[in-house]
Amino acid sequence: MNRREALFSLGAMVASTGVAASAKEMKGYPTHTALSADHLPKPRMGGALRVFTDETDRKTLHAVIDRLIPADAYGPSASEAGCLEFIDDQLAGDYGAGTALYLQKPLHPENEEAIMGAPQFLSTPRERYDSGLKALEAYAQATWGGAFHALSPDQIDEILTGLEAGTIDLGAGVNGQAFFELMLQNTREGYLADPIYGGNRDMAGWKMIGFPGARYDYRPYVERRGEALNLSPVSLIPND
Amino acid sequence: MANTRPKADVVIVGLGWAGSVMAEELTRAGLNVLAIERGAWRDTSTDFPPAVDPDELRWHTRRKLLQPMSVETTTFRNRSGQTAAPVRNWSAYQFGWNVGGAGTHWAGMSWRFTPWDFEVASQTADRYGASRLAGLRDDGLLLQDWGVTYQEMEADYDRFERIAGTSGKAGYLNGEKVPGGNVFEGMRKREYPTPPLKDTHWMSIYRETTQSMGYNPFTIPAGNISQAYVNPLGVTMGPCTYCGFCDFHGCGNFSKSSPQACVLPALMRRPNFTVLTETEVLHAVKHEDGKTVTGVNCVTRDGETFFQPADIVCITAYQMDNVRLMLLSQIGEQYDPATMRGTIGRNYNYQTCASVSGFFSGAKMNPFIGGGALGVQIDDFNGDNFDHSDLDFIGGAGIMGYSTNGRPIQNMNGLRPGHKRWGSDWKQAYARDYQEAANIFVQGTSMPTRGAYLSLDPNYKDRHGQPLLSLTFDWNENDRKMAAWTTQKATQTMQEAGGEAISSDNQAAESWNPYKQHSSHTIAGLEMGADPTTSALNPYLQSWDCHNVFSVGASAFPNNGGYNPTLTVGALAIRAARAIHQTYVNNPGPLVEA
Ligand SMILES: Cc1cc2nc3c(=O)[nH]c(=O)nc-3n(C[C@H](O)[C@H](O)[C@H](O)COP(=O)(O)OP(=O)(O)OC[C@H]3O[C@@H](n4cnc5c(N)ncnc54)[C@H](O)[C@@H]3O)c2cc1C
Ligand code: SF4
Fold first, then answer.
1. Reported pTM
2. DSSP strands (E only) in B99-197
3. Mean pLDDT, rounded, for A29-44
4. Most-buried pick from A146, B324, B409, B457 (CB within 10 A)?
């Protein structure tokens, strides 16, 4: 027997014998073609809000997002486009629970912020909305003597501008600037994501910029360079 | 360990691009190969058909195909002495974690490195003198050759391109420079498997502009296939539809080069191939002799542990995890920047990038017509394609005008400078600028330094309680100067093209951190080379310390070219696998004497 035969079996591998039963062993090309359960689209189901069940929180967020994206000649407001429902749905799921994040301790806030150039958190997005919205309401009461949602558009813009610039301190362990960024990100996501997730109603966000949506074949158009193609957008699910 | 599986000839740790290409070579040579993959099985029709793929929120914004930080993350600091912090959120790091690895959702830019990239040290000395090289080394750059030349890699590059179906046009074919191709590329023996992709509006503007400036534009070689193609494994691919949902997404058309579209249909049908999915390798187990390993310890999704014996272990778990697994397995010695002893974790480098944006009033760029690798590039200022005699840096950058996507969330801050990101001002600006924006990307070389390295973190652990990998890195002066210089060239090109409201973002201008960067190209830590005191692997990707361990990934690159890494990873995988089945199995032992 030469060394090669001694070391290497050079034949079909013996089937394993019951060890590590939970290891998923695959041999041969899988024949099933059904969509994997975790890759099926997960549309927002209609019905009541699941995260923003507190009325004050809901009104505060409503007021914020409609200043971030107001109704104007370019399209509806964030709330008219469904962004509140969108954010609620996102926070109710994996995103809100922060399942992708590394949330292990220790957290050394100052060191982590210095190293990473931005504050780091152990709290989930859902928790950050909860504390952030309550802090906004408290700030409005303390500064303007009234509920946040009852402030005028100019007053809200002033607060949002201050949060964005980092000049307003919301106290209570809430980083106002980071919370502003979180709300801005999620609101615009809601305006621009596929309507399947509850926002971008009537594909208003896509119409605003001229994005044709969930299309998949531009071969007929690639050489029509620089033309206004006027393609009407399509969504992953028909709206009606 | 109580739970022991039957022995395999070869265990492949991580079934991404490198792992699947190695498994293909090794099973074809008759070896019994068992791949162990941490992620799940994912395939075109079951996981990303056209009905679910064009979904920006899910695949790009939420990165649902990528490996979450809760599974494993890294820690980071700019320099020794600081306490590294864990990367808690999504960042420049974009790790794959499914059968197919990041190869399932990469963009597909399919570059060969230039001959210079493989021999930076010796070619710098040859062209600019030994004292120039010595000066760079005195400045802290750890320049060293790869122990393999471009010429030696040509056949392996060619094989990978044939498997991948790469689209493109040769620019240096059998001694002839071919206009329209990349005239700076290393010499090729064959044309690309499929012709180049078509130009979008912005690409044609960029092509005409760079041509008129006297440069040499060409279509980027792409793993977005331009026409139907049958690869050497008998797998059929379809033409790219310019769908614009490419990087971070799978491809529903079988037109993106990927293990799914190119390798797995053939590999899975081989009786001598098996894959364990949703199973993580914890570390390799060393033999008492200290010169080999006996196999790998693993944990299943349900937390069951077992030992998998093997004659050969190939670590193809992506650059970061390749280094981490070597450290967790105690193969070789951890690099120490103070003493410069040890090779594992040494030479870490990255991709030095910048971007320039401009706006074209009234234009219809139609950015939604896109492909992950769709673009026109000039290489006139890449690598050593231009004279550095009077410049205070080495290296350069590929400068591309690209049309990779028009995803609305990703581009929502792509506004003329001076606009707010909210309110009616944002709406008005985005409604206009979505169609009028154009971008140039500057993708540059990166050189290793003494102080940049990988090690195990002393404080933070993964979900199994094993230490995370820790990165210590910041830009070096050489690369900073290179980035500033090439960014100027890109800015001039944007001006020449007629762009208005031009702005640039030179990522090397400030200290590195993973949230500020755009490139996922993490490089080195297990570099290959001819000298065991300065490299972890020999020129066949074999560990100098344990001869039955091979490791392939961008971890093996001593320095980075001004290109995306994957074609070179794939070519190295073929090189290593050929060395195993042609030489190693006949006479197991070091393929190169230390
Ligand atoms: C969005 C995106 C765009 C990109 N675009 C380009 C491009 O245009 N051009 C280019 O050249 N490159 C690009 N890349 C990079 C490219 O994807 C990688 O270079 C390539 O996939 C690396 O191949 P690999 O085999 O080394 O690693 P991968 O393909 O990532 O495979 C590694 C596999 O190992 C598995 N693994 C890790 N640890 C373990 C463990 N302990 N046990 C078991 N399994 C493990 C992982 O789950 C993964 O599946 C891009 C990457 C991303 C994410
Ligand atoms: S751009 Fe082309 S290669 Fe990329 S996902 Fe779309 S069809 Fe596939």
1. 0.97
2. 172-173, 176-177
3. 90
4. B324
Q: What is the rounded CA–CA span in Å between residue B237 and residue B532?
A: 42
**Tokens at A228, concatenated:** 């206004």
Q: What is the ipTM of this complex?
A: 0.96
Residue B523 and residue B301: Cα distance in Å, rounded?
29
CA–CA dist B58, B64 (Å, integer): 6
Q: Which two tokens stand for residue B185?
A: 């590329």
Ligand 1 atom nearest to CA at B247: 1
Question: What CATH number does residue B301 fall under?
Answer: 3.50.50.60
Distance of CA B77 to CAs B300, B511, B513, Å?
Answer: 32, 10, 8
Closest CB to B431 among A102, A208, A213: A208
Give the gyration radius of chain B's Cα atoms.
Answer: 23
Candidates B494, B586, B46, B580; CA nearest to B316 is B580
Q: Specify the pLDDT at position A14.
A: 46
Note whether A10 contacts B368, CB cutoff 8 Å. no
Locate tokens 């393609």: which residue?
A231
Of B455, B222, B476, B503, give the one whose Cα is nearest residue B345: B455
Domain count, chain B: 1
In Å, what is the CA distance from B275 to each residue of B14, B266, B281, B578, B585? Answer: 10, 14, 13, 21, 22
What is the phi/psi pair of residue B444, to 5°?
-110, 170
Average pLDDT over residues B204-233: 98
Largest CA distance in chain B: 72
Chain-centroid distance of CA B452 in Å reads 18
Q: How confident is the model at residue B383 (pLDDT cuts 50, 70, 90)?
A: very high
| CB B428 within 8 Å of CB A203 | no
Residues of A in contact with B514 (CB under 8 A): 116
B64 domain-assigned: yes
Chain B residues touching A181 at Cβ < 8 A: none
By CB neighbour count within 10 A (0-12 exposed, 13-18 middle, 19+ buried), where does B176 fall?
exposed
Locate B96 and state its tokens.
């794959």
Residues spanned by the domain of B101: 8-114+149-407+435-586
Nearest to B6 among A14, A30, A68 (CB): A14
Closest CA to B198 of B169, B177, B165: B169
